[in-house]
Amino acid sequence: MSVAKEKKIKKRTRSNNDAVSPKVKDYGNDPFFVKKAKEAEAFIRKYGLPSSSSR
Amino acid sequence: MILNRYHFSTDSKHLNFEFFSEGPKGRIKKIIRFNKLNSVNSGEVYNLGFGDFDEEKDGIDDLVISNNKDSQKILATVAAAVVSFTDLYPEVQVFATGSTPARTRFYVLGVSKNLKEITELFELWGALNEKEWELFRENRPYLALLAKRK
Known about the structure:
The structure holds two protein chains of two kinds.
Chain A: H1 3-13, E1 19-20, H2 31-47
Chain B: E1 9-10, E2 16-23, E3 26-36, E4 45-54, E5 59-61, H1 71-88, E6 93-96, H2 101-113, H3 115-121, E7 122-128, E8 133-135, E9 142-149
Parallel strand pairs in B: 4-6
Antiparallel strand pairs in B: 1-2, 2-3, 3-4, 4-5, 6-9, 7-8, 7-9
């Protein structure tokens, strides 16, 4: 992607009101998200991934 | 995206996102989390997880129906989080499926409505029942979606 196009897209998709904050918790070990990740792994084991996606 | 959406907060690694849904049912805290799938060998794949934060159980509940009359705005916010996450990790693949078949259909519908904008940024695939993945086409009965930045 060209630099100009990249900048145009970022300008359009970002908001100045979004924030990086140390107050945001790490939910990586939340049982719900752990379960969802395991289900996703099982799905991918069964169906694989699109052959062109990892290029 | 240019859609009306909520503003979010994220951690420095852009793996966790928080925002608040606001509507007739009040202010509801929503969480988006990208979890790396370690057992997948085809490049780096992250699962997109999304749910309501339940203060009582101090955890996530994705089966609750909050019905806050803002589903499109929420979907646009999740999409913006995917953009923010892949700004930082442009090589990864993002896997997404709904908690229920109805929710997956809702996500597919939402993507279909905004396909032109989404495909400016992402390559997108859908998994069909008992068949292989295909490049995303509007309103197909996908079981799951996979996105990667162009």
